Amino acid sequence: MSDPNLSSSQTPSAANSSELAELKELCADLRWQTHTLRIALLIVASALSAFFWLEVRRSGQTLTLLRPQAAQIVEATKMQDPIANRFLGQLVEFAKTHPDFAAILKKYPIQGSSAPAQSAPPAAATSAAPATPRR
Predict the structure, then answer these.
(1) What pLDDT score was predicted for residue 117?
(2) Burial of 105 (C-beta count, 10 Å sphere; 0-12/13-18/19+)
(3) Would you say residue 116 lies in a domain?
(4) 133 assigned to some structural domain
(5) Do residues 120 and 95 lie in contact, with contact meaning Cβ atoms separated by under 8 Å?
(6) Domain that holds residue 67
(7) What is the mean pLDDT of residues 104-129?
(8) Rounded mean pLDDT of 100-111?
(9) Terminus-to-terminus CA distance in the chain, angstroms?
């Protein structure tokens, strides 16, 4: 195409027509490549869509199987919530009379335990002898 040693038998119009033919061939090749890439993209997008559809379907089936178990867990939690709240209330009441335990409630905060722990008297004021830990 840009070879300076062109033969003398070629005229400028013949060189232009060969370049034009070469460009047409390149355009045809590019059209073929873009067509092939579009088909490949369509295949990949279809496969990905099918995969996502399959995953949604499987997840839906799994969810319908797990709903009864989840309902049982929710019911058990609703039944145990009052028991746990009553136990926490007992811990807070216990912390009011035992300042050593109030320190534990301060370390591991429980809702409602901050006010009783602050209003609890200091350990030195409630007992004359220092408390020894049990082993």
Answers:
(1) 41
(2) buried
(3) yes
(4) no
(5) yes
(6) 13-126
(7) 55
(8) 81
(9) 98
- With respect to residue 4, please indicate whether it lies within any of the assigned structural domains: no
- Based on the structure, what is the number of domains in the chain? 1
CA nearest neighbour of 102 among 66, 131, 78: 131
Does residue 99 fall inside a structural domain?
yes
User: Using CA atoms, how far apart are residues 40 and 38, in angstroms rounded to an integer?
Assistant: 5
**DSSP collapsed to 3 states, 25-88:** HHHHHHHHHHHHHHHHHHHHHHHHHHHHHHHHHHHHHHHHHHHHHHHHHHHHHHHHHHHHHHHH
Q: H/E element holding 129?
A: none
Compute how many other C-beta atoms are within 10 angstroms of the C-beta atom of residue 27. 10
Please, what is the average pLDDT of the chain?
A: 80
- List for the chain the helix, strand, coil content (%; round to 5): 80, 0, 20
